[in-house]
Specification:
mainly alpha, single chain, flat, 132 residues, 2 domains
Length: 132
């Protein structure tokens, strides 16, 4: 468990360093706005990080933090859906996995079905049948 925790901490550190590097590159050479900079540092920093972080990076950072929380709570390695132990091989490849393979596949099928299902009340109209 310690080796996985260490790997997660390294992954998190690398991701945070990359975010900081990008943040520095984005803000270099810009002049601060007029006003009290000290009052707006936190707000500006949050805005910068939101701009810089891609959805993928945000998701990955959240997954890493979630896995570290589960390690602290002694629930790491247990499928959150069915409760079975997630194989170590899967955890080595995906250290932030929350589900066993079977439950992950089931969830992905359900998500795909929901994406393909039209919203209630919305009818798909074939091309050429639209009245103007």
């Amino acid at each position: 468990m310690k080796s996985i925790k260490d790997m997660l901490l390294r992954m998190r550190e690398d991701l945070v360093k990359e975010i900081a590097r990008r943040s520095k590159a984005t803000t270099e050479g810009t002049m601060p706005d007029i006003g009290d900079i000290l009052d707006s540092v936190s707000e500006e920093r949050t805005r910068e990080l939101d701009m810089i972080l891609t959805d993928r990076e945000k998701k990955k950072l959240n997954q890493i933090d979630d896995a570290l929380d589960r390690i602290e709570e002694a629930t790491y390695g247990l499928c959150e859906e069915c409760g079975v132990k997630i194989p170590k091989g899967r955890l080595k490849v995906m250290p932030f996995a929350k589900y066993c393979v079977e439950c992950q596949e089931k969830l992905e099928r359900e998500e795909k079905y929901l994406r393909e299902e039209p919203e209630e009340g919305i009818k798909k109209v074939p091309a050429g049948e639209v009245e103007e």
